[in-house]
Amino acid sequence: MKTVKIGFIGTGGIARLQMSMLRKIEGVEIVAAADVNKTALDLAAAEYKIEKTFSDWRDLLKIKEIDAISVCTPNKLHYEPTVTALMAGKHVLVEKPMAMSAQEAGKMVAAGKKSKKLLQIGFQWRFTPVAQMLRRQVHSGALGDILYVRVQALRRRGIPNWGVFGRKELQGGGPMIDIGVHLLEMAHYVIGAPKPISASGACYTYMGNKKSDTVCQWPNWDYKTYTVEDLAIGFLKFDTGCSIVVESSFVAHIEKSVYGIQIMGTKGGATSEPAMIFTDQNGYMMNMEPAYMGQQHDGFEFKLKHFVECIRNGAKCLAPGEDGWMVQKMLDGIYKSSQIGKEVKIV
Predict the structure, then answer these.
(1) What is the 3-state secondary structure (H, E, C) of the chain?
(2) Residue 296 clears pLDDT 90, i.e. is over it
């Protein structure tokens, strides 16, 4: 079995979560890590016994034995390390969202093609058992033509009080680009990844940039540097005639947090939470619940195993850069539409 040697660019919380799962996979070795934050770098190196550490990620890429790189930096720092790593002959897993813009994403895809190296986007919801079940229903034709999908990634009160999630200049946006992207990528994958053609959006900031004494699970966020939206709504049209509405919030006055998708087709519909199929059968409206969706697994852990499998055995990547590029176009369209106040075309 070929040992896959991996280097990390960025060693924050998401990187250490990846490391904890990668070390469970046989034949995987974490050989190097880079981070400008020495405290985070030293913590990761000590916990996961990483011998080679760097303050500059460019030095890490000079190590010839490294097969692959995982890019776990803030969104603003996804593009340059990814392109440079690909052109240095390394396979790359880059955390979601893919980039700060569709323009950057397109260049990342081009670099992957030119270098003939794998570019996998850190989408994990598509790997969950429920997403695979729904995708099979759609692709079998059981739901007919897909007309409409509602995507919800809504927190009642969940502004991150760590990291740089509230800083637009480093993240590109707030809940839409951070948590909305998860359910959006899942929904887009489930219905067959149609081409987006237009977007409308509206973003609202009304609480995150103010001090709050409301009791919540993540209190005391940095409201002084908060420049992203609290709530974002997007309406997307696709070349198949399908539409998607996506709703995402860090903070909203709703009963409870909601995460899931709802699909409506000409022959049937479905939801992810709970996993249900709705259709007509022999003159009756039927609600069907799958008795078994296969062995349960964690989507985040599965994406890492899939990355290793693609490198080691040449498996077809199920979260390719092209999918990330399309999702990035949707995010760009929603934010641009919100900014200019009208629908925008997606090309």
Answers:
(1) CCCEEEEEECCCHHHHHHHHHHCCCCCEEEEEEECCCHHHHHHHHHHHCCCEEECCHHHHCCCCCCCEEEECCCHHHCHHHHHHHHHCCCEEEEECCCCCCHHHHHHHHHHHHHHCCCEEEECCHHHCHHHHHHHHHHHHCCCCCEEEEEEEEECCECCCCCCCCCCHHHHCCCHHHHHHHHHHHHHHHHCCCCCEEEEEEEEECCCCCCCCCCCCCCCCCCHHHCCCCCEEEEEEEECCCCEEEEEEECECCCCCCEEEEEEEECCEEEECCCCEEEEEECCEEEEECCCCCCCCCCHHHHHHHHHHHHHHHCCCCCCEHHHHHHHHHHHHHHHHHHHHCCCEECC
(2) no
Percent of the chain exceeding pLDDT 90 equals 98
Query: Contact, 9 vs 31, CB < 8 A?
Result: no
Q: How many CB atoms lie within 10 A of CB 236?
A: 27
Task: Please compute the mean of the pLDDT values over residues 161-172 and round it to a whole number.
Answer: 95
| Fold exhibited by the domain 126-297+328-345 | Dihydrodipicolinate Reductase; domain 2 (3.30.360)
CA-to-CA separations, 315 to 9, 93, 306, 318, in angstroms, rounded: 24, 15, 8, 9
Give per-residue pLDDT as tens, 143-165.
Answer: 999 999 999 999 999 999 999 99
What is the CATH code for 4-123+300-318?
A: 3.40.50.720
Predicted TM-score (pTM) of this structure: 0.94
Question: Rounded to the nearest 10 degrees, how much is the dihedral formed by the CA atoms of 179, 183, 184, 186?
Answer: 140
Phi then psi for residue 232, to 5 deg, are: -135, 140
Domain boundaries, given as residue ranges, for the chain: 4-123+300-318, 126-297+328-345
